[in-house]
Amino acid sequence: MSSIHDLTAWEPLLRLVRDSGAERLDAPGGHLTGRIGLGSWSVPVRRPSPVPGRAAQVEDMQDEFTAVERVQDALRADGADGVPFMVETAPGGRTLLHVIESGPAVEPGFTSPFVGALLLVENAVPEPWRRLPEDAPGAAPAPSADPALLERTLRERLPDAIGATEEEIAEAEARLGVALPGELKALYRVTRARWQDWGDDYEAAERVGDAVGCELFSLDALYIADAASRPCLWQFAADDAVVTAPDAAVQGLVGSPGWIVFGDNGGGDRLALDLTDTPGRPS
């Protein structure tokens, strides 16, 4: 029997669900649903109100965290990413737990923990996620690009920063499979943006952010924003279309092997350097 079907993994959570939703579970046809994944969860558990005058603390929800961790441990043991479940009361008062396992052809729903979409072809993705960039022959850096000036300016603003070595930059290029443009190399020669270099000094991190204009990722955290890195549920993605207008500055794509993500605006929006270019756009 798989770990996720071992009732002992679910017992703490079932007690919380029963205590929180007793009225709904005792009603005719009453049931509660949820989903637990390795990185997030949605469970029908009533959370206690925080003490007046202070924000909610981790310890206020410790019982929920501990119960969910038991199920997550079972998921890891089975090599699974997540599982939906349903709790109901059977005639006679017994509590029934339904653990719903599905294969790769089933996507979870957004408003339901069960089926959101059925894939007739395993690993199929919507058309926008299959679209590749158009070639842009002759694309080149703009005449205004000046990596040397950028590096000098950053060194003036960040005189104590620890920069990346040429070997570290070469390692990043090998990992990404693309040569970093001059401006990005100049940036990381000044600062690697690693937390260990700042010694958990938040003010040092803020100084880098102020100098660069964003929350800069470390050299080790650079990644390519290809289509695979931006998954979307079929129920939403199937309604999407991508269009590149004639005067567009960026190709209308889900992802591109020429988009190097190097930072964040602080609100979850990624910032990328676009090496893809747009056909017909002046360099």
Order of helices and strands, N to C? HHEEHEEEEHHHHHHEEHEE
Helix content: 25-40%
Spans where pLDDT lies below 50 across 5 or more residues:
none
How many alpha or pi helices?
Answer: 10
Alpha carbon gyration radius: 25 Å
> Which overall shape is indicated by the principal axes computed on the Cα atoms?
globular
Record the SSE blueprint.
Elements: H1 7-20, H2 22-26, E1 31-37, E2 41-42, H3 62-78, E3 82-89, E4 95-99, E5 106-108, E6 115-118, H4 127-130, H5 147-157, H6 166-176, H7 182-190, H8 195-198, H9 202-212, E7 215-216, E8 223-224, H10 234-237, E9 259-264, E10 270-274
Q: Can you offer a commentary on this structure?
A:
The chain is α+β, with helices and mostly antiparallel strands and 283 residues long. It has 2 domains: 3-118, no CATH class; 127-274, no CATH class. The protein is 32% helix and 16% strand. It has helices at 7-20, 22-26, 62-78, 127-130, 147-157, 166-176, 182-190, 195-198, 202-212, 234-237; strands at 31-37, 41-42, 82-89, 95-99, 106-108, 115-118, 215-216, 223-224, 259-264, 270-274. It has a 4-stranded antiparallel sheet. Strand 5 (106-108) and strand 6 form a beta hairpin.
